[in-house]
Design brief:
A hairpin with a 2-residue loop joins strand 9 and strand 10. Helix 1 crosses helix 2. The chain folds into 3 domains: 66 residues, Histidine-containing Protein, Chain: A (2-Layer Sandwich); 66 residues, Histidine-containing Protein, Chain: A (2-Layer Sandwich), CATH 3.30.1340.30; 66 residues, Histidine-containing Protein, Chain: A (2-Layer Sandwich), CATH 3.30.1340.30. The strands form 3 sheets. Strands 1, 2, 3 and 4 form a 4-stranded mixed β-sheet that branches. Strands 5, 6, 7 and 8 form a 4-stranded mixed β-sheet that branches. The chain has a 3-stranded mixed β-sheet with strand order 9-10-11. The chain is α/β, with parallel strands linked by helices and 223 residues long. The protein contains 6 helices and 11 strands.
Length: 223
């Protein structure tokens, strides 16, 4: 296998700026980009929480990026009240068929939404966030949802995850170590991109019995 030469911080910064211009969800003039040892720091101010996440995702898509520090602030334009936001949050949760909305409580304070309650699957944590992150006026989400404990052995959880990873042709399961203790899953090893890492984390969230995921995966694009 040919080893690709590591990219310089200047090259990475140039491509992150280009990716921000390419992403129509982000106004690149609102975002500052600094790069140090392949770690990208994003600064600036955007109008929506969705734009803040879009900028983060754009930076992660760039080849050679190891980590992203998102220091972008969200300052909505308009005068939406927390009551308005809370009503939209409840409606969005109820409309999402993958979210057990009846078991989720929400609190909205100055645009920050806190999610509390108990759900069945780890992936439902991410589904709940995804359902509300595009709501106008939301500046951030604090996810305090917990996973209902299920009678699944660590061996069954590990086997289910490893089997799922092996089915994914995009990544190499042998590079990933799965450690399970009382429903807590620790992932160790190397992946070649943020997309691969996110796909693995998404796969783990579907395994029955997973209560938390400890991400120790290292992005190593040139291995």
């Amino acid at each position: 296998m040919t080893v690709t030469e590591a990219r310089s911080d200047v090259q990475i910064q140039h491509d992150v700026l280009k990716e921000l211009r390419w992403d129509s969800r982000v106004d690149e003039t609102d975002v500052g980009v600094e790069v140090d040892d392949a770690i990208v720091t994003l600064t600036g101010t955007v109008r929506t929480y969705a734009a803040r996440l879009a900028a983060q995702e754009a930076a992660h898509r760039v080849k050679g990026v190891l980590d992203v520090v998102n220091d972008i602030e969200v300052k909505p334009i308009g005068s939406r009240t927390d009551t308005d936001i809370a009503a939209d949050v409840r409606l969005a949760l109820e409309r999402d068929v993958f979210v057990p909305s009846e078991r989720i409580r929400t609190t909205v304070s100055h645009g920050l939404v806190t999610l509390e309650g108990e759900v069945d699957m780890y992936r439902e944590l991410a589904d709940a966030e995804a359902a509300i992150r595009n709501i106008d006026g939301v500046i951030g989400i604090l996810n305090k949802l917990t996973i209902r404990k299920r009678a699944v052995s660590p061996g069954e959880i590990r086997q289910a995850i490893e089997s799922a990873l092996e089915r994914q042709a995009e990544r190499e399961a042998e590079r990933i170590e799965v450690i399970v203790h009382d429903g807590d899953v620790t992932l160790e090893g190397q992946v070649r991109s943020w997309r691969e890492k996110r796909a693995i984390l998404g796969t783990v969230g579907h395994a029955p019995g997973v209560r938390s995921v400890i991400d120790h995966l290292e992005i190593a694009p040139y291995v």
